[in-house]
């Protein structure tokens, strides 16, 4: 019999509640995906303020859940299992979601699963493109993470091949936006400015691409510093900063490194499908270059729509459904959030 899974996400600045239906044939159907974001409250700080995020989750959790049930036309009593992000993420923020999930699970007397946020970013693709082939390579790029993951089984078999040694890709976007006096979060305004600029105008460095660098790791802090220094030097001459060219050249450097390493990993690991997810997957140049390079290499590319790429509850519900389908054991009610949870 089909089962309804509720997913709760609160690892960063998005309060998400998703509802999905797990069908008997293993397919997972999206029923509701409600998100309340506190991003506007963090904008003037140029980054997420943990205490502000926790308070916002506390205020938004129940109304967001109510909206999800209303959208799906379901009642709380229709829920068969609950999945919640156990980590990684901000400790206080995670605790709000975990506490809410425990309360719902206890009140409804249904099983509770603590799941990994990073795996959720990959599982969400099944809501749009159907079951994942085995294995797939996942490039996870957001404000908090930049990782290449080999996914043999979404519910239990994920191996990290590489990750950033400093800033996450989205963090680099946010910091460069600040340098260019563009609003926070920086991804969308840089993406927009870059469309009017020349990506070859400035040769910004491609981090971690030297012969002695770890093959699948990333580094974006050198790029961020190079952009800041270039802008400072231009300002010192009194010339106007060519914001569109800087944005386009920076964006090209990020997209180049991310896609080159992903293709290399897919080739070396003999993996035929690449999934790109996380907030930065919404970047137009990244998906364009990934499509080009995947086509050349004969690799299938799957990029969930932007709404599913950024943090949401549906990704946690989708992962919960795969965990339920795999028969993984239920979390005891005394489990806790784990801010540093590995994949
Ligand atoms: O996945 P997400 O919503 O939250 C985290 O888990 O971090 O990702 C947010 C990040 C931000 O750093 C934002 O600047 C970036 O995703 N982002 C983009 C674009 N849209 C959002 N980066 C590049 N291009 C975009 N179009
Ligand atoms: Zn995320």
Automatic annotation (TrEMBL):
Coiled coil: none annotated. InterPro entries: ATPase_NBD, Gcp-like_dom, KAE1/TsaD, Peptidase_M22_CS, TsaD. Residues 29-317 form the Gcp-like domain. GO terms for biological process: tRNA threonylcarbamoyladenosine modification. This is tRNA N6-adenosine threonylcarbamoyltransferase. Its cofactor is Fe(2+). It is an enzyme of class 2 (transferase). Pfam families: TsaD (PF00814). PANTHER family: TRNA N6-ADENOSINE THREONYLCARBAMOYLTRANSFERASE, TRNA N6-ADENOSINE THREONYLCARBAMOYLTRANSFERASE, MITOCHONDRIAL. Fe cation binds at residues 117, 121, 311. Belongs to the KAE1 / TsaD family. GO terms for molecular function: iron ion binding; tRNA N(6)-L-threonylcarbamoyladenine synthase activity. Substrate binds at residues 140-144, 174, 187, 191, 283. Keywords: Acyltransferase, Cytoplasm, Iron, Metal-binding, Transferase, tRNA processing. It is found in: Cytoplasm. Binds 1 Fe(2+) ion per subunit. Its EC number is 2.3.1.234. Gene3D superfamilies: 3.30.420.40. It catalyses: L-threonylcarbamoyladenylate + adenosine(37) in tRNA = N(6)-L-threonylcarbamoyladenosine(37) in tRNA + AMP + H(+). Required for the formation of a threonylcarbamoyl group on adenosine at position 37 (t(6)A37) in tRNAs that read codons beginning with adenine. Is involved in the transfer of the threonylcarbamoyl moiety of threonylcarbamoyl-AMP (TC-AMP) to the N6 group of A37, together with TsaE and TsaB. TsaD likely plays a direct catalytic role in this reaction. GO terms for cellular component: cytoplasm.
């Amino acid at each position: 019999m089909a089962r309804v899974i509720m997913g709760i996400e609160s690892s960063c600045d998005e309060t998400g509640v998703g509802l999905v239906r797990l069908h008997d044939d293993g397919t997972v159907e999206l029923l509701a995906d409600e998100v309340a974001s506190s991003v506007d409250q963090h904008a003037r700080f140029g980054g997420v303020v943990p205490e502000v995020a926790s308070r916002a989750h506390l205020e938004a959790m129940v109304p967001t859940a109510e909206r999800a049930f209303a959208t799906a036309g379901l009642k709380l009593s229709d829920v068969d299992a609950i999945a919640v992000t156990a980590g990684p993420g901000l400790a206080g923020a995670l605790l709000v979601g975990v506490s809410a999930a425990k309360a719902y699970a206890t009140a409804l007397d249904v099983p509770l699963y603590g799941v990994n946020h990073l795996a959720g970013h990959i599982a969400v693709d099944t809501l749009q493109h159907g079951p994942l082939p085995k294995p797939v390579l996942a490039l996870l790029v957001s404000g908090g993470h930049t990782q290449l993951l080999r996914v043999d089984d979404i519910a239990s078999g994920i191996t990290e091949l590489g990750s950033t040694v400093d800033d996450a890709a989205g963090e680099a976007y946010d910091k460069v936006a600040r340098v260019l006096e563009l609003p926070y979060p920086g991804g969308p305004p840089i993406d927009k400015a870059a469309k009017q600029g020349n990506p070859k105008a400035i040769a910004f460095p491609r981090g971690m691409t030297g012969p002695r660098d770890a093959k699948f790791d990333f580094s974006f802090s050198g790029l961020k510093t190079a952009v800041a220094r270039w802008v400072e030097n231009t300002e010192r001459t009194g010339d106007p900063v060519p914001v569109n060219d800087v944005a386009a050249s920076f964006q090209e450097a990020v997209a180049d490194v991310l896609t080159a390493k992903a293709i290399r990993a897919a080739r070396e690991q003999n993996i035929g499908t690449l999934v790109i997810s996380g907030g930065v997957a919404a970047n137009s140049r990244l998906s364009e270059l990934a499509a080009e390079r995947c086509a050349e290499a004969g690799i299938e590319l799957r990029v969930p729509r932007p709404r599913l790429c950024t943090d949401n509850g549906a990704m946690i519900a989708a992962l919960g459904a795969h965990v339920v389908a795999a028969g993984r054991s239920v979390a005891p009610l005394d489990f806790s959030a784990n801010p540093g949870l590995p994949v």
